[in-house]
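Predicting holo structure, magnesium ion bound.
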Amino acid sequence: MTTTGYGAAIRDGFEHLLANHSEVFTIGQGLWSPWYVGNSMTDLDSQFGRERVIDTPVSELGCTGAALGAALCGYRPIVIHPRVDFMLLAVDQLVTQAAKWRSMFGGQVCAPITVRAIINRGGEQGAQHSQSLQSWFAHIPGLRVVMPSTPTDARDLLIASVLSDDPVLYLDDRWLYGLEEELPPIEERNLANEGPKLTRTGQDLTLVGCSYSAHLCREAAARLSANGIECDVIDIRVLNPFDAALIIKSAKKTGRLLAVDGDWRSCGMAAEVIASVSEAVDPRIMRAAPRRVTLPDAPAPTSNPLERSYYPTVDYIVQRALALVGAQQETFE
Amino acid sequence: MTTTGYGAAIRDGFEHLLANHSEVFTIGQGLWSPWYVGNSMTDLDSQFGRERVIDTPVSELGCTGAALGAALCGYRPIVIHPRVDFMLLAVDQLVTQAAKWRSMFGGQVCAPITVRAIINRGGEQGAQHSQSLQSWFAHIPGLRVVMPSTPTDARDLLIASVLSDDPVLYLDDRWLYGLEEELPPIEERNLANEGPKLTRTGQDLTLVGCSYSAHLCREAAARLSANGIECDVIDIRVLNPFDAALIIKSAKKTGRLLAVDGDWRSCGMAAEVIASVSEAVDPRIMRAAPRRVTLPDAPAPTSNPLERSYYPTVDYIVQRALALVGAQQETFE
Amino acid sequence: MASVDSVVHRNAASLGTLADAEHFHEPLAIDGEDIDALLAGLQRMILIRVVEEKIGDMVSQGVVKCPCHLAIGQEAPAVGVAGFVRPGDRVFGAHRSHSHFLALGGSPHGLLAEVQGKDTGVSRGMGGSMHLIDIPNGLYGTVPIVGATIPIAVGAGLAAKMDGNGDMAVSFFGDGATEEGVFHESMNLAALMKIPVLFVCENNFFSSHLHIALRQPDTSVCRYAEAHRIAWSRADGNDLAAVRAVTREAVEAIRAGEGPRFLELVTYRWRGHVGHREDEDVGVKRKDDLAAWKLRDPISRLAVALEEIGALKRQQLKQSWAEAHVVVEEAWATATHDGYPPAKALLSRVYSGTMANKH
Amino acid sequence: MASVDSVVHRNAASLGTLADAEHFHEPLAIDGEDIDALLAGLQRMILIRVVEEKIGDMVSQGVVKCPCHLAIGQEAPAVGVAGFVRPGDRVFGAHRSHSHFLALGGSPHGLLAEVQGKDTGVSRGMGGSMHLIDIPNGLYGTVPIVGATIPIAVGAGLAAKMDGNGDMAVSFFGDGATEEGVFHESMNLAALMKIPVLFVCENNFFSSHLHIALRQPDTSVCRYAEAHRIAWSRADGNDLAAVRAVTREAVEAIRAGEGPRFLELVTYRWRGHVGHREDEDVGVKRKDDLAAWKLRDPISRLAVALEEIGALKRQQLKQSWAEAHVVVEEAWATATHDGYPPAKALLSRVYSGTMANKH
Ligand SMILES: Cc1ncc(C[n+]2csc(CCOP(=O)(O)OP(=O)(O)O)c2C)c(N)n1
Ligand SMILES: Cc1ncc(C[n+]2csc(CCOP(=O)(O)OP(=O)(O)O)c2C)c(N)n1
Ligand SMILES: [Mg+2]
Ligand SMILES: [Mg+2]
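Done. Tokens:
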């Protein structure tokens, strides 16, 4: 059996799209560079030509707008922002344009643009090269937000995003590039039918996360199982539009919820998970108050010891989970 | 007794700042126009000179960055964005620069910039002239977010924002400009000590909102009282950093929570209110599941009937509150 | 110091007499021009004028509530450029685009229904005056975020280039939009990739209440095209013949694969920035200018010129105006009785939920 | 058509021989120059070179982990401009700013501690190589978001103008930054408001892996200054004397209240975009160019010129290098033993929580 890594799986998705859909092209910074976007697009330019794999000037807003224009004219562009931080210069085109054109024009146009931004944290890069901000974009009606946590999803959800007639923000995390798995044959799925997935089942606790946090939750669940605590683990996968049904069902079963997110806390995705469950579940059947694990309320530091304490870890999640499961005894002041 | 409106109160705040603090100036679009920002800055340019009241080209990002630069050099600029939608072109300077410079440089600099953006919805303006997005900015560590709901707060929190040594986003809502009240003498307060306020007390339900939504909550509470339902009403005032203590205390008392927000639902401020309470309150003492009232998951429409159904109203809040208070009987499927 | 080289800027791009309201009041010089095209253009300008005056009246009466930015007085750029737009081309506008919509052949009823928020409007009542679309006539979208459609038009041009049919994109924007960074990003991208896009700047001197002299160090914007290495032309934007001449030349070059072109069309709006009033921009010295600018009327200067060479009778002209009023009143009446979008439209038009079929 | 006016772009701003690596290998022409200043500048360039080579080595050994963008080969712009910065001025840089920090007099120890994330670093360990600050020496901040410090520098210039002491702001950025729209917004604002700011573009031809010919329609960026009506100068950025000459003239004009000036300094980086390797930018034809560019070395060309006129002995030169190595090794050793920021620094440095006192 041969396994494929997360980055290579993304490349497989690009290859499938460019080979099978002539209306697909990709544009962004670093596309003619062998190192800029890791191994996720290597040599696509030589394979499909620099007319369809377009490297650009340092103009995030202009290039994103140009992709939107092409999308309005029958193409399916994939915009690449090597870092979420850089994409922030393009929010007008993504949030005020792409996400709204369909509704604003009475449903008469569609904007099948996919914006792929890479979460590229750590490595002492600091405050301006570490943001993920999925919570921002999950907040915007009209914009589908996708965050795969496995190589298979990285490939197939990229394909589904690009083939969707709606604008999609696809976020991948460099910290997942090490993951390997055997890939099933490619399936062209309808993104509108994709959503959160139960990736492990248990009676004691519901663990919810997306992207790298979903990976951490799976690792934590394995460790907790060794301690006799069995978890439902839910990988959100599609953050917007957000379908909380599966999470609600699980919370009703376990009566305990721990929401993990690699973004900041306030008004974040973890808050949304807890709010959605709290609204839908009779509080009297909850066995403990739900909890969040997120980034601390600070920009990312560079100094190594601070950086190590900054990001959620499996250890920390396990610790919080144990506290939560013991929480019947927990006293609320 | 003479009363002052919300817009005029903002102007009083500007006048106090410009008259008493030589390091204050204001820069943005519409400052030399008699109509662009309502009556909130009328004739400040002739009163204090166009060197300190600066109208600008249509360059949101550049002008916001320029204000930040002046703030790093000892001034206290107030940037004006006549609409939140326009400010989105400046998120890099607000979120990746201003909010992070202090921490990024080890606390050695401060950036006392205040960005004032106006929420200017309704009037069939449509999707690109109606966003408020406070939830986005309340998500960002390092950025203080202020939303006054009364004329007195509009004046005094503007002053506190500008005199704060931290970057502040100050959002006012045109729909509040009609509010009038008698203003107390000006007080220069430390923004770091300001937070949510209990503006009405009751045993049955906790109503929470900010800005115009706080106003709606007050109106709804009065109507509910006529129906024999007494509410705690909490005006958030300072969204970031968010201090939920008062809301938690109230929820423990009433056992019921309705969070109202004029922004979108997912990952929004209403979600944060519910998540903060759910984490801190023993679920078993909640008398009902908390609920949210927010915008529907759609961009703002223009057509009058659709627009009327788009924004939360006092009627709707009252309706939801009644359902919530009757919620012991409510069945959860 | 052989390795040093300095220049203090020249004022090469200043507008000169084009900026002076006292000039260009005389009838147009149209000898040798395509008279039929000018007659058709006159007709179209009259229609735009009458539609916008109607909208202005309805705004003043509070019947139309969405913000309306009227192009009364600057009809020629829209009509002149539209004359060279062919099926396959993609045109984009901004907040002041009733003129672009109508110049391309858009239906007065569709516009008048849209400003009333009716389901029969061109944007099905979801956009109002500031969000117009009419793909059958080549209008791919107009939006009020200043500068936003400029990169979008460049992308539409890139699509046209990939299609390889010699089609082009057209981007209409104002002088204020040249202050948005994205304008420059878009110009660089278009020049670099030789994208078939026509940039059309309607320089009417104002960005809402501010004159360009209070916003930029020079009054003409062609200097930006020069910086981005894009060939440019500048013309009296109230002279339909001049607009047609520079457009013809630019469009030929674009379709020939020479890449983008830039037009600066100098004009003036008769109404305030938004709404129906002429004196909206209080505090801005405008009243006196406006009187003079009205003598540079794109419609009357063309009409008189056509009369002088005997191509148009006074009677025909009267009739054109009369017909336009009939068309507009009928369209308005119909639109008034049309229905609003259904309640479900709010949520049903956000996502398509559909998925592409394989090519 | 009297009202029409067209121009097809000229190539006036192309770089010519400045872009040709085969030129400017000869010793500098320094007769009539301020020799003491050149000697001091040589010292400083040597220090920068040695510090950056040390950092490069530590990156290659994996000791330094934060991303480091080395300016080896392009030391002259930083040193040349810094020679005209006085107390009260405010300088801003970007991601490749070790050179700016050191040229302004920053302590090697502060930099070497910062790249190791130590509490004794110039940013107290919170910023690393890409976020440097040294207010006592006039460095107000360097950040890696391309173009971000350009408007910030304009605002610092506005503050200087309001202070009225004849101080100025300096904005260092690269050729890639001119592709960000905010660069143009900032230039327009500075020109309009006559803000005392010196824009310094170090044109080293590359934006990470892409040559400027693949990003812009022309290789020189002065055309942007011309468009924004800002007086500009262009010079061999590897010629300290030339850099000093254009800077002197520009700074005098700025302090005299003439508003902003723009400098394009043509140079080349010897290392990859990020990190220590010379061949980092794989896929970009660079190796051959690099060899030639090394002959345009800002240090050796100046040193030889100074030797030729007898202002510098070979022995002194050797000693300068030796001393620089001693300083750097000592600074490195100290920094290595310094401590990291305390855990509480993460949260305690986010907000000041303080409030202004009344003036
Ligand atoms: C990004 C953004 N900033 C500000 C505004 C407010 N605004 C609307 S129209 C306008 C003036 C634009 O002037 P110009 O581009 O010359 O077009 P004109 O109104 O003259 O037709 C401004 C500043 C906006 N809509 N979008
Ligand atoms: C907004 C933004 N976009 C992209 C990047 C990635 N990036 C970092 S440095 C750089 C190249 C900048 O080139 P230039 O301005 O010429 O500076 P140089 O590296 O040549 O010194 C790029 C594209 C970034 N840091 N910020
Ligand atoms: Mg204008
Ligand atoms: Mg460069």
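Chain A touches chain C through 54 residues (CB under 8 Å).
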